Amino acid sequence: MGMFSESVDVVCSAAGLPVSLQWAGRHYTVCADPVRWFERRQWWAEESRAPLGTGPGLVDHEIWRVQVRADPLHFDSGHPDRPGKGEVGEETLTLDLSRHLGSGRWRLLRIHDALQPRTA
To answer: What does the alpha-carbon distance between residue 60 and residue 41 come to, in Å, rounded to a whole number?
Structure first.
């Protein structure tokens, strides 16, 4: 599993669930029900001062785990490391995304390794 923080564009449904995202020049569609939870962050190390009356978003991060598949119609086939149309497999990626409650911005936090099939 890789952990980092990179900006990602996320499109949500009317109910607020992630349905697709754009990352690193690629378009992905959410292919399973996303899961949401909150993680405590080190606000005392990240904020110089906690403004009076601020609570939501100060202590917790909203985290979404999504499973996505690349949309072959949106691939950049001119890039040597990226497949062109018709060359994209059905590989599913599991990603953890964080949404900043104040600004609505999304960050990609983790990419989970896919399980490899065992051979006898």
So the answer is: 6
> The pTM is what?
0.70
CA distance 74 to 30: 14
Which 8-state DSSP code applies to residue 113?
A: P
Contact 60, 38 (CB under 8 A): yes
Quick: pLDDT tens for 22-51: 998 999 999 999 999 988 777 667 666 666
Spatial neighbors of 16 by CB under 8 A, at least 6 apart, are none
| Best CA proximity match to 37, nearest among 105, 101, 98 | 98
Q: Residue 67, class by beta-carbon neighbours within 10 Å (0-12 exposed, 13-18 middle, 19+ buried)?
A: middle
CA distance 74 to 39: 32
Measured CA to CA, the distance from residue 20 to residue 98 in angstroms comes to: 14
Taking the C-alpha atoms of residue 88 and residue 100, their distance in angstroms, rounded to an integer, is: 31
